[in-house]
Design brief:
cobalt; about 375 residues; 14 helices; 7-stranded mixed sheet; cytoplasm; metal ion binding; binds glycine; Rossmann fold; 2 domains; Dehydroquinate_synthase; alpha/beta; DHQS/DOIS_N; Dehydroquinate synthase-like, alpha domain; binds nicotinamide-adenine-dinucleotide
Length: about 375
């Protein structure tokens, strides 16, 4: 087992990463406050892992709260059902909310913990690759609004992130690829050597090779912990973690939550950010193509949805959280392995990015039509 730390003063917390950690009460129990525990999970994850987590909480008063599965349920109604369940069972301020599931469960359970009686103890037990490398770390919680992705929420840090890498054995391949989008993101924004490692190991990751997965999770969590420790509330560098997300969130909102997976939208969104970085002269065509090939090898889409026009993108991007004083800031690359956040780009260049032919770009990068 490997342990990393998110350094946030008295709100610092450990990230434990290893196989079969669901069966380790010694890691979990020290992070509970009182006797009560609400395990928030969903109907897919509960039959797989709820009993094991429950066994590690022996002697506690445990209430499972099983939500419907899917991004389309990341909303007020589902959040309200968590409060209904907790209040009906008289959870007090010493209760602990444990999120057992992917990023959807984690974001909603965390927001519920932030709001319930103005804030109760919270633990993340992420079970998708995406949630293990990204969403469980850093305290962003929230729900979607029909007009914008993750537009309602709170910064609320967990007191523990417990990553059981063996839960990935049951993850569908499409979800594994979605998680790889965020893994590749770290290479692109801050870690060029990791990008090179990913080029050598992406197939091993897709084949669920234990050692490769553990290494990728550790390296991703280390990158995220460092950024969050430096800029918890996203006043600066944390925004770089959103490479591809402004384009990606537009795709998710426009297509309907859950139609494109978050990681898939980020995959195509990163291709758009790469193209815009190339148009700005920050990266070469060869660098853009190298990154696009890796995204495609990860099993991710590299072409945005045909159904979306540039105006569709612009309309959704106007409600992005990176809009400040009416100016849309974008995360772009300075080079492979270094990102910047800027609102200083010619509008024509954004338009060129939105009107570019991504089928042609993918072909230029050497990706054939079938694998796009
Ligand atoms: P998800 O939570 O929808 O999980 C994907 C699917 O896998 C679901 O059907 C889920 O039930 C299933 N599943 C989960 N664990 C499984 C397992 N071990 N075996 C089999 N099936 C399993 O999606 P996700 O990709 O984990 O998370 C995406 C969400 O995370 C989005 O809402 C996104 O906005 C959010 N997100 C948040 C942050 C953050 O910093 N808070 C960062 C990135 C993404
Ligand atoms: N996933 C982006 C962030 O945590 O800031």
């Amino acid at each position: 087992m490997q342990t990393l730390q998110v350094d946030l003063g008295e709100r610092s917390y450990p990230i434990h990463i290893g196989a079969n950690l669901l069966d380790r009460p010694d890691l979990l129990v020290p992070h509970l406050v009182g006797r009560q525990v609400a395990i928030v999970t969903n109907e897919t994850v509960a039959p797989l892992y709820l009993d094991r987590l429950h066994r590690s909480l022996e002697g506690r008063q445990v209430q499972p709260i099983v939500l419907p599965d899917g991004e389309s349920f990341k909303n007020w109604e589902t959040l309200q059902s968590i409060f209904d369940a907790m209040l009906s069972n008289r959870h007090d301020r010493k209760t602990t909310v444990i999120a057992l599931g992917g990023g959807v469960v984690g974001d909603m359970a965390g927001f519920a913990a932030a709001c319930y009686q103005r804030g109760v103890n919270f633990v993340q037990v992420p079970t998708t690759l995406l949630s293990q490398v990204d969403s469980s770390v850093g305290g962003k919680t929230g729900i979607n609004h029909p007009l914008g992705k993750n537009m309602v929420g709170a910064f609320y840090q967990p007191s523990l992130v417990l990553i059981d890498t063996s839960t990935l054995k049951t993850l569908p391949r499409r979800e594994l690829s979605a998680g790889l989008a965020e893994v590749i993101k770290y290479g692109l924004i801050c870690d060029e050597p990791f990008l090179a490692w990913l080029e050598d190991n992406v197939e091993a990751l897709l084949a669920l090779d234990d050692a490769s997965l553990t290494y990728a999770i550790e390296r991703s969590c280390a990158a995220k912990a460092k950024v969050v420790g430096a800029d918890e509330r996203e006043t600066g560098i944390r925004a770089t973690l959103n490479l591809g997300h402004t384009f990606g969130h537009a795709i998710e909102t426009h297509m309907g939550y859950g139609v494109w997976l978050h990681g898939e939208a980020v995959g195509a969104g990163m291709v758009m950010a790469l193209e815009m970085s190339r148009l700005l002269g920050a990266i070469s065509t060869a660098q853009r193509d190298r990154a696009i090939r890796l995204i495609a090898r990860g099993g991710l889409p590299v072409v945005p949805p045909e159904a979306m026009t540039p105006d569709d993108f612009l309309a959704h991007m106007a409600v992005d959280k990176k809009v400040l004083d009416g100016r849309l800031r974008l995360v772009l690359l300075k080079t492979l392995g270094e990102a910047i956040v800027t609102d200083e780009y010619p509008k024509a260049l954004l338009e060129a990015t939105l009107t570019a032919n991504y089928h042609d770009i993918a072909e230029e990068a050497g990706i054939n039509r079938e694998s796009k």
